[in-house]
Every structure is written in C-alpha cells, then in structure tokens.
Amino acid sequence: MKALQFSKTGDLAALQVVDVPTPTPTADQVLVQVKAAGLNPSDVKNVLGRFPYTTLPRIPGRDFAGVVVEGPKELLGQAVWGTGKDLGFNRDGSHAEYLTLPASGVAHQPEALSFVQAASMGVPYTTAWDALQRSGVVAGTRLLVIGANGTVGSATLGLANVLGAQVLAAVRRPEQARVLREQGYEVILLTQPEALASEVNAVFAGGADVIFDTTGHWLPAAVPALAVFGRLAIIAAPLDGHVQLPALALYRKGGSLIGVNSLLYSSTECARMLNQFGQYFDEGLLPAPRDLEQAPLVQGLVSYAEVNAGASTKVVLIP
Q1: Which of 87, 144, 229, 303 is the Cys-Cys partner for 295 at CB 3.0 to 4.6 Å?
Q2: What is the CATH topology of the domain spanning 2-109+289-317?
Q3: Architecture of domain 123-259
Q4: CA angle at residue 68 from 67 to 72, to 5 degrees?
C-alpha cells in the first residue's frame, strides 16, 4: 500500500511517499480501508520532532474515516471513523491506504457525514467535547469561546449549542465576527486584553461560567472575565510554555484551570466520545463541516507544508 512515512524528525522533507506492506490485523483488531484522513497541526509537529515519544519509522496521522475490511463479523463492511493518541506516534497512523487498530477503537460513522467530513473532525471535535464535559458545560451555562473561528472553536460552538449553553464567541477579525453572527452567534471582537472582562460582563453579568481559550494567548485576560467558581479551559500555550497567570484573582473567585489535551486519550476512549456526539449529526442537531480542502495522499508533503505555514482551511488527505 502507499503511505506517508518519516524515518527521522526535524524537517518536513523527511516525509516521503512509500510503498509498504498492507498491515495484518491481530485477533482483537480491525483492518480499515482509509477513505479519507484528516491532517492536523499535531501531525505536522510530529514530523518536526515535537513529540519525543514517537517511535520511528512511522506513518503519521490521527484522524480517519473508512470501511472495515477485516475484523469482527459485526463490523465488516461498516463505515467507521476514529482518532486517538496512539495513532501516528507509537503505532502507524491514518496517512496511508490501510490502517489497523483495536476493534474497540472505531466508531460507527454518522450517516449524515461523508467520509471527507468525518475524517476532518476527530481531533477538533473530541478536543471540544472533552473541554465541555470536563468544565461542566450543561444547559444554561454561560460559555465564552476564545478563538471561535478555528476548527476546535467552531466544534465547541456547535456542541455547546446542542447542550443548551448560552454561547458567546470571541474572534480577532470583523469578517470572522460577521460569519459567526450570520450563523446566529453573539460575538465580541478581541482587541486589548484589558478590555475583555468588561466586554464579557456586558453580555454575561458577573462573568462567564466557563471560558475556553483555544488560542493559548488570552489566559491572563480571561481570569477577570470569569464568574465566581468559574472554569477556565485551555488547549495551547505560548511557544516557551510559560504564561503570567493572575493566580490571586483566580483564587479569590474560586476559579479552576483545566488543561485539555486530546493526546491523553486512546483510540478506544476517543471512539466512545465519537459515539456520544456522533448521533447529533444524524439527528440534525449539528451541522456537517464545510469548506474542506481535499488533497491526494501522494501530495501529502505539500499539504503538510501548507498546515505548517498556518493555512486556515482544514485539509483532508485522500488515499
């Protein structure tokens, strides 16, 4: 089969299109014919050597959608989707024509989604779902999503709507705000950090119950915008990993800080999440993703370079 593979890290040029044997599943595994595979920033960082626990040589790729061609009888021929911390790091990932993983690591793909749409959603949607669940977002929760225009941000908006939260989106650019308002969301523009608290309080009197910073840059400004006993979830940090946290202000509000990391969850745990919210697509409660860029797997190096350069459009590789 054809696959993308790297045998050293530090340079995207290490990524090559190779011919390797089709993997053979063990008794507790499935063999999935990959129909589409999402490309995430973490896949790019993996090739660049940001994850020291990756074993080489390695086929990267965490997210996929495809068809089970070998495995338990009840799964044969089924359309499935999945993601997980093990894929592309210490076992071969989805940027290939075929993929093996535990039978418990695949979820039934919603009928409302195409393979391309399903493959684009693994990391962003499991990250958003984990953030909402662990920060206690339920019906009526006043939620601020910072960076709401990104893949994780937009996933969070949709899932929070289904849960019945009161949602406030925050973005940097007026054109991003316009698009979100057209979708029915209340939006504030991110300008000066010191202005965030007053802008949030103008919408949520007393502050937001939960703030999800998907950018990693607004943590200090978000603390004053929290309500008493508020929860602040983050998924990123500055490059040096450090930020000035107003700990006294967080303490006085009884606030909580929640780190959200999708790389903590196995494919089996992620499949459980996908099954939990996947039904919302078939019930018409969640919109299918749009504006996806499809690219041939054999041109993967070009796509990796685009994502590394900061491309805003979600890329899905097609074997």
Answers
A1: 303
A2: Quinone Oxidoreductase; Chain A, domain 1 (3.90.180)
A3: 3-Layer(aba) Sandwich (3.40)
A4: 155
